[in-house]
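On clarity, I found the account of how folds are encoded harder to follow than it need be. What matters is that the chain and its backbone geometry are given together, residue for residue. The format is easy to grasp once an entry is in front of the reader. For illustration, here is how one protein appears when written out as sequence plus structure tokens.
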Amino acid sequence: MTGARPGLFVTVDGLGGAGKTTVVAHLARYLTDRGYPVHATTEPSHAPLGEIARHQTDTYSGHALACLVAADRYHHLATDIRPNLATAKIVICDRYVASSYVLQRMDGVPLPFIEAVNADTDRPDLAVILTGDPEITAARISRRGAHTRFESGIDASRTEADLYRDTAERLAVLGYPLFSVDTSEARPESVAAQIGARIAGLAGVHGLTPAAE
């Protein structure tokens, strides 16, 4: 479901250690400070199904986990993302379809299956992918600790980086409006400002103006 909707749907995906959650927080603040109505959310969601997909990756894997993540995504769209877009908010989602194209493949799921279970998801107005040097992102993960079994050292970070490059190419062919930002050396505030400026430009095109205006 895409097309006419009052708000803007922005997704932020990228390597573990690229700073997605921090960037999303700064991005929401950047846009809010400029008068835009913002709703920040995350996937897996904090609904019961999302909590299973987020916290039980040691129990569920492969096709089962891919289905859990996709089911939570459809529920999240219906109960959170679309309702907020309908009230002319800028919805920023920390992780979306691009993450499934990467993490589920790292989990041994064939790409055609991942494409099929995500085929009816909404296309974002802007799909941000945070890139980075795998050596740097792996070092960040080592310092903060791994969040899931997918963050298992430099080899995993290199594989993830390769898959994100492939995913960006595939999503571009599908018509996703992509915006990639390298976070290797950039501060989160700077990355958020780059993305925020792009979103503000899109907001103007879509007729979304800051409250101050």
